[in-house]
Amino acid sequence: MNDKKPKFCVVGAGNGGLAMAGHLAIMGFDVKLYNRSEERLRAVKMEGGIDLTGEVTGFGKVQIATSNPEEAVADVDVIMIVVPATAHKNLAKIFAPYLKSGQIVILNPGRTFGALEFSQILKNEGASEDITVGETQTFLYASRVTGPGQAKIFRIKNSVPLATVRAFKIPQTLSVIRTAFPHFVSGDSIFKTSFDNIGCVFHPSLVVLNAGWIEDPSDFEFYFQGTTLSTSKILEQLDKERLSVASALGFRAMSAREWLYYAYDVSGKTLYEAIHSNPGYRGIMAPHNTNMRYITEDVPCSLVPMSSIGKKFNVQTPLIDSIIRIASAMHETDYYKLGRTVESLGIENMDLKQLRLIAIGEHPN
Questions:
Q1: Where are the chain's structural domains?
Q2: Which of 6, 69, 141, 167 is the most buried (most CB within 10 A)?
Q3: For the structural domain made of 8-195, what CATH number should be given?
């Protein structure tokens, strides 16, 4: 890729996609914006770019805003996918015919086993084996769409781990990505980024535990007011289950409190104190219904795979399973069936050694 600035395509024109595409453009990078539907692209096309406020302020001019996948990824170096994890599978099929050798695809974030799922689909669709697929542990920004073609960045995280399916490609990938985003650091392996997925601790539980308030017409701050002393204790216990599943795979995942310090420089003796010490969460309001990505994405693509791996290695996850069941009942949807399981990922018959080989990019026997 020599010394030239990498060219980016940002996939997704929602809260995160507009923030990332606008920020890249303001920093002087060539950036294309892709979205499956034209509706969210209209204002960007009309204005020629994205208007950002908050921690990053300015107008970012995009090269192209398109719903054509071939046009979107042509002549770019990095494809940053910024959509709910439930769309990863379909996007892998959409882009597989057009991706070229040497391109980098990063899921922002992958949630749990996103990069593994994406790379398997690319392989099944006959895409080049020299495409690097990676994932981030969380999303770089706390951001929201504020209007057509407009977004506000509340906070940019200090450090976000990134890993690739072939772990030996992490340094090479970071050398490219960090020309734009020095915030990204080595995530060791896709198993580490998958299980340091802190959104699965905060998002589904706070929606389930505050469902009555969310469905009430009054507004409240999702993290500050939704996390009470009692709800924070539930989050802490669920977090312990996540750490136990990670331990069964042979590595130490970050606790939610450690992650808050790592990402936001905030600390506290309890998770309650740490959350309420985070200015990055101030002003983030709760959704007005439960049928949103904190359930529809984080349950099937984060909690379900953690539960499934737990069952495989005989780790009990009663709180994780309870949130999955309650969310399934709330939405009359079987999130176990829809989610990423060891069966759907094709790893149900692999032992620990074989799984660890996948993490470093080797084919288990």
A1: 8-195, 199-343
A2: 141
A3: 3.40.50.720
| Chain center to CA of 92 | 15
Tell me: cis bond preceding 217? Omega within 30 of 0 counts. no
Which residue in the list 23, 203, 239, 321 is annotated as catalytic? 203
Q: pLDDT below 70 — which residues of the chain?
A: 1-3, 361-365
pLDDT tens profile 306-362: 999 999 999 999 999 999 999 999 999 999 999 999 999 989 999 999 888 877 766
Contact, 70 vs 96, CB < 8 A? no
- The pLDDT tens digits for 82-133 are 999 999 999 999 999 999 999 999 999 999 999 999 998 999 999 988 999 9
For residue 252, the number of C-alpha atoms closer than 13 Å in the C-beta half-sphere is: 4
Task: Identify residue 170 by its one-letter amino acid code.
Answer: I
pLDDT of 280 reads: 81
In whole angstroms, how large is the CA radius of gyration of the chain? 19
The single residue of 30, 196, 239, 298 carrying the catalytic annotation is: 298
Query: Rounded distance, CA 163 to CA 175, Å?
Result: 12
Cα end-to-end distance, the chain, whole Å: 34
- Angle (CA) 283-319-354 rounded to 5° is 105
**Could you tell me the two tokens for 186?**
């080595």
Q: Do domains 8-195 and 199-343 have the same CATH topology?
A: no
Q: Which fold has domain 199-343?
A: N-(1-d-carboxylethyl)-l-norvaline Dehydrogenase; domain 2 (1.10.1040)
